[in-house]
Amino acid sequence: MPDKNQSKEGLPIPPALIRTLESDAQTLIKSATPAQLLTTHPSSPPLAPSFSNRGALTKILGVIIVLIVGGAFSIPFLISRFRPIAPAQSPVISTSPSGREPAPLRASLFATEKTRAVAIDGRDREGLRTLVKQLAVENERTGTVTQIAVSINDGPRERSLAPLDFFNFANLNPPEGLRVLAQEPVMPFVYYKDAGFGIFGVAFKVRDVDRALRDFFAWERTLPAELATFLALASDEMPSAAQFQDRTYHNIDVRELPLPAPGTYGVSYAFFPALRIVILAQQPAAIEKAIDRLFDVR
Predict the structure, then answer these.
(1) How far apart are CA 27 and CA 21, in angstroms?
(2) Is it the case that residue 205 has pLDDT exceeding 90?
(3) Structural domain that includes position 252
């Protein structure tokens, strides 16, 4: 049997001419560059997704579409659900309507349960007094407050009550400095200490609290008699001498005029410095209620 390392003529074959798998691999490694080695065997083509993979992808896309559509429909509901609720407005009861264009209602200086809107002729000095007397005896719930939103008919269009209008309608004669310092809005109100027992009061803003307080001190000599005339109080309901006393309610200084009956007071007024509001009332209970409302204590 001839040797595999010999030629047909029986001569030996040089080792370099004998090709084996090992020799070919060594030759390729020695002669080829790294880039050629990496590209010698092409990568296998990507496998096409099977039927089961396509079904899962379809389900995922369906779920995403359902979530998007559901979210679009739920956004308006969520917005309405979490939108801040506007504070409830007190019901407005309009009286004495006129043919003129009505004046816009001014916002309350503090919260009230009702608003009584009334139009008064600019020459009618009894209109406000008559309304206050009517409201004072109405059978309203104890502890409630009714705002009197007054508009004046003295031109082609109704206008809101100004401080000088109130002083004139109520026949009050404050110092000249207070007439200048008083600002709108003016808010007459009735506080129902008991059902059928209303206490009149008024609140308005001032430009300078310290100067307005000095004017009120000067007004104390005539204020009780002027307010008694406006409210048509009997002589025994008001003290003959005006000697106001100081006290504090919720850290707010209150000036009060005692009545002859023990434990009761007449005219009272107080300043709410943070908002530059002055409150004048027939009795201190109305002052306290207004201060409570200004502190949002209801």
Answers:
(1) 10
(2) yes
(3) 92-294
Alpha-carbon span 220 to 223, nearest angstrom? 5
Domain assignment present for residue 98? The answer is yes
Longest dimension (CA), the chain: 159
102 neighbors 143 (Cβ within 8 angstroms): no
Specify whether the CB–CB gap between 129 and 233 falls below 8 A. Answer: no
The domain total for the chain is 1
Give residue-wise pLDDT tens across range 54-72.
666 677 777 777 677 666 6
Phi, psi of 22 (to 5 degrees): -70, -40
| Three-class secondary structure of residue 140 per DSSP | coil
Compute the distance between CA of residue 246 and CA of residue 147 in angstroms, rounded to an integer. 27
Find the mean pLDDT for residues 103-119.
Answer: 81
Give the alpha-carbon dihedral of 254, 258, 264, 266, to 10 degrees. -70
H/E segment holding residue 59: helix 51-82
- Rounded to two decimals, the pTM is 0.64
2 belongs to a structural domain: no
Cα angle value 236/238/240 (rounded, 5°): 90
Exposure string (b/e) for 128-141, b if CB count within 10 Å is 16 or more?
bbebbeebbeeebe
236 domain residue, yes or no: yes
